[in-house]
Amino acid sequence: MRATFPHLLHLDIVLGILYPTLGVEIVPPPPITSRTIEIGVEHAPQNACFPLKVTLGNFVEGIERGADTVFMAGGVGPCRFGYYGQIQKIILEDLGYDVQFVLIDHPRFGWRPFFQALKTMAGGRFSFPRVKKAVSLAWKALVFTEELETQRRALRCQVVNRAELDMVIDGALQSLRKVESGSEFERIKKEAWSDLSALERKKENNFLKVGIVGEIYIAQETRINFQVEKLLGDLGVYVHNSVSTAQYVLNTFPVLKSKEKLEAWELARPYLKRFVGGEGIDTVGSTIRYAQEGFDGVVHLYPFTCMPEIVAKSVLTQVSRDFDLPVLHLAIDEHAGEAGLVTRVEAFVDVLERRRKYWKKAEGE
Amino acid sequence: MELYLGVDVGSVTTKLVLMDKKKKIWASCYLKTSGDPVLALKEGLTYIEDHLPRGGEIVGVGTTGSARHLAGVVVGADIVKNEITAHAVAAITRVPEVRTVFEIGGQDSKLILIREGVVEDFAMNTICAAGTGSFLEHQAVRLNVPIEEFGKLALQAEQSVRIAGRCTVFAESDMIHKQQLGFAKPEIIKGLCESLVRNFMNNLATGKTIEDPIVFQGGVAANQGIVQAFRDFFQGKKKIVVPPEHGVMGAWGAAILAMEYAPQETAFQGFEVVNRVFENRSFTCGDCPNGCEVVFLKEEGVIKALWGSRCGKWTPETVGQKFAESKLEEKTDQRELSVS
Amino acid sequence: MKVGIPRGLLFYRFYFFWKTFLEELGAEVITSPPTSRYIVQKGLTYGIEEICFPVKVFLGHVLALVDRVDLLFVPRMVSFYPGEYNCPKILGLPDIVRNLFHLSPEQIIDEEINARNRGMREAEMGLIRLGERFTSNRRKIAQALQKAEKVHREYRQQLQSGVLPETLIDGKQSLLPKEEKVLLLGHTYLLNDSYINMNVIEKINQLGYSIVTPDMVPEDRIRLFLKKVPKPSFWTISNEILGTALSYLKERDPKVKGLVHLVSFECGPDSLVGELIGRWVKKEEQSLPYLRLEIDEHTGEAGLVTRLEAFVDMMRWRDSNLESHFSPFAAS
After folding, report:
1. Does chain C have fewer CB atoms within 10 Å around its N or its C terminus?
2. ipTM associated with this complex
């Protein structure tokens, strides 16, 4: 079995650590490029949301690299993501690819298929200690990759030399790919932190602060969202992202729901009373939290036509007014142009800057 | 006299404005970009030089528009700003109590909300052509009406006909259908104007509170038919101002921003820029399937600036090396070079 | 107390249920007028750009009611079938309305109706909570509920016999009976609002066909065929569309000559479910002619008519071609 899977930021690094231990050969799809998107757009339903198209492109490119199996996750709705696998499986079949499509779905749709999928994904032999050890290291790696990206967002505006920052972080990510043991992992981690703290910082510290909210895929996948975080950082903005894959995984288990998430839902309630699928309610809650934490603005990233995020956007207008917090909505799909997006982000930062100046002046009077 | 130069290079038109310290415009021009921003810039600079008042000296330059970075390198800009901010600044200067700005240009349209002289919110439409000047120009050609006559004809119509369509293609087929049904040209033109306004409002203004005075600017603001269609849309209840400088507001805003920025010493390259040889080149990088369209600007054979390299591997130095190695230098008259 | 029911989204499914229930509880029910250009225009200026056309129309209906009633009826219809959902926009509808029109909790009925986790009993609990807004008398609520359910059952039976909702609600003229039929799929708010769908039902009827919609197919039959789908969708109405399509593809009714799927341009569920149906149709041998009609505020009537007429030609052509298969000299 040679299995491929969809990209989601550094998921390939995490699975690269997990799978050799389990004895499953994985074939990561090549990095997302224009070709990936073209393939996805060509074969996916025209009005499907963008992540379905990109991940379909991943599968095709993974198969081209020699994969005979596809790993994908399902869901319980009401957002479309939970139905991606059903559609993608048929599309791959109709394209004539002879691959095994392993879909791990919620036990709600049957415990037996759930365990079967789990067993296949765990390499057939379900040995608990083995799985536990592999999962524990992979989990640590996932959390670490997210911590690195958090640092990249926060430090971009602060360091004197941005290229150095990228070098440290990309270097750490590269060495993670080769990690085999826990001790090695700890060494990489320690080194990365000391390298980061050694970076020369600027003297000033009153940076504009912008929070990122939105749909999990678009808000994180820099190869799709035109590197909005980098763009903001280059404009001198401190960036924080409320979306995290590790949190997402934890929150699929009701007992592991994080305090942060429950708090965000509570904050959202005056505007959006219940879960509407995907990250809709989290988007609203996180926006309010950013307002309370004194952020200057929020960038809302989501796939064009995304249902939960459209509900969120509908109520964010009111949130933005009540908390006097500018929100920039960026819908991403294959038609989104980089030039227009850059102009909007630049103008948004101008708005935030001018607001700060205005309030300072108003306070001074 | 100290003067400021504002340059707005858009995809369809190029605008230049010469302004003094009191923000008074001394000269301005409005040219077609025609796919060659450098040439359009040179033409504009020649015009400005010819209209430079005696004793005038340029002490600050601002550029804006979709080719703002390119223009910034060619002219030597002190500040490079996006066109949303530039338009807002000019509108606030012209009408200090402005609450809303409508800007419709050749390839995109913008809505800017201003409260107490500060931009509060904005929306920009870059995907849908049905709300832009290109749409009208295209339809004018179809109807065989000079675009200058368009507005006047629209005002002659006693009634309008509803033209449906999300984008130019659909609107066009619906328009042809209405023509076949026997509607007169003025009525169809009026319908087109209303369709553009409806698309603009539905694409950009939904969920936003439009307060007046509204400043309507951009090339399309010259069209009386559109102005009237906006007035009808608001049933005459909102005050709409079309400033006399409506066509060059972006450039004017860039000049004002340059003045606010107040450079110690301007980066302006001087009017002799028009005599220098610039080559605006591009190649498609084939190193990964992303196929980045790398654009670079050469002056007298030296690469001065470069855009579009997503991974960051292309810099003026690496591109220079690449071309030296592959001896593609000889084919300099070729507009597009392909390197794989 | 005046309660306003906006004429949009699930209105055509539950109107009689809601009306009876509210009236039995002592409310005066006011319904917004049928969709018109004015209502659509209003809706377009209120709804955010990317939200689907039917929600925009719904907002137009809300606006037509908001100043005329004491209470706006926008219950949160999370689910009306065990284990399934409605689409996220319907889940968030009361919040969208509340925020856009600045309504206080006293101005809107937004109780949650949810049969997803614990079935119809759970949904009834929501209705009882809703009833408590009007009376504390539990018995009165239970009676109102019973009566409403009875009226609803009768309504659904009438629909199954082929009567159209607009005939029952507005007394719209019913269709002329025709020998041949077209299977018309789509969400209830598209199929049953003749302004939104530009009279598509009447147009098909005038072209010589009767109509079959998912409302006219017995529910057990829909559910039986849905079981054949490896994993049905999460959305009830989409599942009914899937089940109906599959039942007519797998067990042919010789009178049904073609399949038309009416979809709203921005509809999330239909973007995937429609794709499935399209692929099923292609895989069938001697399949049914299939047409996907996308509808939104930009749809021009001329284009719609052209497509329908071409489709009718296609059905007739296919029919005559199929017959010729029985001839020994049939062209291949």
Report:
1. C
2. 0.92
